[in-house]
Amino acid sequence: MGEGRSSDVRMARVRRSKEEARAAYDRMSAWYDLLAGASEEKHMRAGLRQLAPREGERILEIGFGTGKALASLTRSVGPSGRVYGVDLSAGMAGQAERRLEAAGARGETALILGDGARLPLADGVVDGVFMSFTLELFDTPRVPRVLGECRRVLGQGGRLGVVSLAKRGAANPSVRLYEWVHNRMPRYVDCRPIPVRQVLEEAGFTVVNLERRSMWTLPVDVVLVR
Fold it and tell me: Are 68 and 99 in contact (CB under 8 A)?
């Protein structure tokens, strides 16, 4: 898929560099769960229920943050499975490593510092990919690259679970205000709502389930695709 079509859905741009993003998440890693963890967690759990990882599967999480989903995924796939986590931030990786060690699950999880738009994994090696409040962090031209990488690393019949701030048709007042703040303070509000279903279908995925939720009056989509 080309990169042009995603620009047609009128996503706001993400006006900060990858290096700025890495530095920001390194700084906030120690207190991220206090800032956003509680509000995001229930939606993340809904995404994990949709993905329904099974024992023995190989699952990748892109943007694993402090490792809450990784710990759950590792328990689900068991000792015969394998979980991979890719994140840009070394600070977040440190928090995730401590969480996994406390849960006795560090040995079954491979933590990788890397970019979701250039995954350091071979073709077709995972059964599932999971992203929670991550896809909307990528700038508009990079969203199709990330989804293309997801398709590449998924095996036959593989599935992708996405939890994201959503933009559905005409933006409601909360979305318009959020985008206004995002456009003026991109270093502090670096994500923005995106048309989740549309970008997934444009990337060649088929929607299996879509649950519409909200967080702070902002729309959230929890989507499972194949």
Answer: yes
